[in-house]
Design brief:
Layout (H helix, E strand, L loop, with lengths): L12 H20 L10 E6 L3 E2 L6 E12 L5 E5 L6 E7 L4 E4 L10 E5 L4 E11 L8 E8 L2 E9 L1
Parallel strand pairs: 2-10
Antiparallel strand pairs: 1-3, 3-8, 4-7, 5-6, 5-9, 9-10
Length: 160
């Protein structure tokens, strides 16, 4: 009976695993430090707002949020809205996507609005809305849908 020996040229799983962990770690550090941004749209909208809103049993509470529209390209971007009221729009939906609250109806001049967003610049706007406590349930999550110059983003917040 002949003895067989283990192959000597096979893959070294320990080395391969360590190399993969190092690569993933380096990628995570690069993203967290802002050296690499994988979510950078040519025109990028961010919404900054509270993650938790504490509502009274009845009445209204203000929710202040900021939108920032950034041009990450080398070319100017023409921003256009049908009316001044269409520059900034919002509504809130529950976790299932059902309408909860929207912006109040307002009279608006029928004037097309235009603006130029220059390369590598941004425009920022702060808005305050009044949340009607009767429409929300403590302990639930809600989605605020925001549109600014036609670019959209969703901000999720919890109600307590």
């Amino acid at each position: 009976m002949a003895k067989t020996s283990a192959p000597t040229g096979g893959p070294n799983y320990m080395t391969t695993t360590l190399i993969m962990l190092a690569a993933v770690g380096a990628l995570a550090v690069a993203i967290s430090q802002g050296w690499l941004n994988l979510d950078e749209d040519p025109i990028h909208l961010t919404v900054t707002a509270p993650q938790t809103v504490i509502l009274p049993r009845s009445g209204e509470v203000p929710l202040t949020y900021t939108v920032k529209l950034q041009n990450n390209t080398d070319d100017p971007e023409l921003l256009e809205a049908r009316t001044p009221c269409h520059i900034h729009r919002w509504f809130v939906a529950d976790g299932g996507g059902n309408f909860v609250q929207g912006e109040p109806k307002e009279d608006c001049a029928q004037v097309v609005m235009n603006a130029d967003l220059q390369p590598e610049t941004f425009v920022e706007d702060t808005n305050e809305i009044l949340l009607d406590a009767a429409r929300y349930t403590p302990g639930d999550s809600y989605q605020m849908m925001v549109s600014y110059w036609g670019y959209e983003r969703i901000h999720v917040f919890d109600v307590e």
